[in-house]
Backbone:
């Protein structure tokens, strides 16, 4: 068969195009294979660049570091972190607790016992002051020397001396006429008249003697006046104590373990109100003596609290006393509990409160200075106190310090301690104050376990940080302290 003319060159051209296309596809395949191989070989360099994006919440949660093997309600604290928080373990033991109401109070003097004034017995001029403010004095010691200027005192001395002389004259007349009356020379009526006159003089003497004693003269001075030695000066001395200080009884026993409660037969000169050379009138106050062994605590409650106070008084319920002012570091013994002594029957018109009073036996320390025994009192009139009056008793409950419990919304938690592990446990709080929290013994936490007695808030922060719940922009240290990110 004949081949058509000119078909040879056409076939050659077509073959060349096929070969060229084949070579192009082969080169492209080889190039792509090289690129893929190069990408696979260098994937450690370019693959992280593709992953630089904001992770999702799920990815962030998955990438958080977690302590191996710890549940989400547990946190581990190092020994150093526990020391930084001052953690101590407290066993949960069922006990009883008193609900209280807090009432402000103040320590005040006990009228008629704590303080007493010393007055001038006569109108006179102060010529000497023997004791000054801050001195300790005992009954019978001299306080002031007064020079008499009043006419009445001189008249009293003169009348007393005259009564003494008239009595002596009457006595002499009776002795002289007694023998004569027996012989009948002198009527018996005359002798009877003289004896009546003698008794009248004795009555006058006794009256003037009492008057001079009231004016402050001693027995020796009165006897000197009877001899005609009139007194121109009067010495005012420390009076005797009117009554023995009484023990403060709460219930039927003395409460507390005081440093020193022994009665002291001494006064302190609290204030001197006169000066040398000053003329004073009879009855004017010269100084004030104090003995702060027996005091009152005055509390003031509002009318809604009155039924609770009356029940506390009737049942002699103990009342805790806390000083709001004054350092207590120098006194090792606790302030003894007190009971209500009496409740005022009148209502304060301005504050609309009712006053009630509790007896307080003071405590003191003594030291020597310049031959005198001086006193340091623990309680001082004017100090403010906080009174915790028991009103209701709770039984079979757990009592913990307020720092041992943390609150999150309606939930309260404690941290059960097991070595360095702290397990968060929910609890039911039935009563709380600024210092204490009372938990129900309902089985949520078993009796006898040990819980962290402080630092619950800080431990909870560490737990929340561990779970990724810390606020943004801050970080939580192992001891629970929170700081801004550096």
Residues:
């Amino acid at each position: 068969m004949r081949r058509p003319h000119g078909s040879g060159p056409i076939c050659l051209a077509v073959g060349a195009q096929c070969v060229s296309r084949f070579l192009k596809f082969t080169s492209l395949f080889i190039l792509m294979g090289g690129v893929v191989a190069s990408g696979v070989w260098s994937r450690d360099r370019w693959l992280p660049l593709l992953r630089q994006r904001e992770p999702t919440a799920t990815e962030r949660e998955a990438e958080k570091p977690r302590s191996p093997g710890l549940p989400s309600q547990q946190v581990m604290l190092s020994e150093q972190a526990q020391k930084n928080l001052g953690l101590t373990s407290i066993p949960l033991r069922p006990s009883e607790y008193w609900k209280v109401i807090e009432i402000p109070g103040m320590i005040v003097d006990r009228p008629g016992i704590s303080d007493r004034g010393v007055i001038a017995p006569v109108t006179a001029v102060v010529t000497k002051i023997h004791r000054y403010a801050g001195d300790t004095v005992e009954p019978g010691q001299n306080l002031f020397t007064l020079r008499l200027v009043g006419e009445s005192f001189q008249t009293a001395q003169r009348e007393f001396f005259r009564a003494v002389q008239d009595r002596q004259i009457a006595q002499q007349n009776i002795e002289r006429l007694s023998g004569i009356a027996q012989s009948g020379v002198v009527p018996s009526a005359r002798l009877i008249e003289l004896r009546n006159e003698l008794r009248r003089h004795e009555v006058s003497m006794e009256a003037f003697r009492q008057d001079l004693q009231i004016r402050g003269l001693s027995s020796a001075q009165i006897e000197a006046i009877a001899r005609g030695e009139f007194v121109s000066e009067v010495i005012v001395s420390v009076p005797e104590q009117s009554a023995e200080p009484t023990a403060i009884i709460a219930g039927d026993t003395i409460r507390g373990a005081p440093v020193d409660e022994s009665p002291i037969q001494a006064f302190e000169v609290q204030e001197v109100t006169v000066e040398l050379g000053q003329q004073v009138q009879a009855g004017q106050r010269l100084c004030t003596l104090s003995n702060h062994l027996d005091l009152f605590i005055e509390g003031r409650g509002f009318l809604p609290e009155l039924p609770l106070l009356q029940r506390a008084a009737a049942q002699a319920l103990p009342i805790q006393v806390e000083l709001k002012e004054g350092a207590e570091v120098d006194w090792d013994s606790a302030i003894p509990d007190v009971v209500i002594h009496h409740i005022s029957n009148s209502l304060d018109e301005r504050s609309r409160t009712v006053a009630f009073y509790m007896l307080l036996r003071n405590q003191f320390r003594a030291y020597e200075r310049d031959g005198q025994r001086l006193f340091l009192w623990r309680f001082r009139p004017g100090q403010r106190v906080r009174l915790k009056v028991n009103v209701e008793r709770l039984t079979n409950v757990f009592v913990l310090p307020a720092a041992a419990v943390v609150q999150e919304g309606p939930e309260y938690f404690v941290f059960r301690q097991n070595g360095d592990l702290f397990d968060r446990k929910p609890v039911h709080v039935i009563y709380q104050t600024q210092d204490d929290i009372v938990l129900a013994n309902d089985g949520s936490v078993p009796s006898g376990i040990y819980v962290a007695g402080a630092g619950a808030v800080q431990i909870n922060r560490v737990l929340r940080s561990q779970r990724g719940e810390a606020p943004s922009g801050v970080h939580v240290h192992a001891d629970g302290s929170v700081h801004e990110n550096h």
